[in-house]
Amino acid sequence: MYFYVSENGYGLRFKSIPRYFTKERAGLKPNTVRKLSVSERMSFDQCKDRIDEVTVINTDTGESFTRRVTDISTFPRELPYTGVLHIISWEHETFSD
Length: 97
Description:
6 strands; 2 helices; 6-stranded mixed β-sheet
């Protein structure tokens, strides 16, 4: 996952396998669950209140789309072998394809 400066705050850019990318782009799965590395977690914690968009990239084709973030939730506890999980949800609309 990569952070970038967006028009109104910050954006997140991440890759998605084709099976999920198709559902995410169509609005059938307008969210992602991510486990962040220690360095990602530090950056994420500093700017999560200002993240306003997400760009999803197909791992096979490089095709991408961008959507407005509607919610960022943290799974309420650390899970064995998983750590802290973040759920990032977005509005399904054509923001940028």
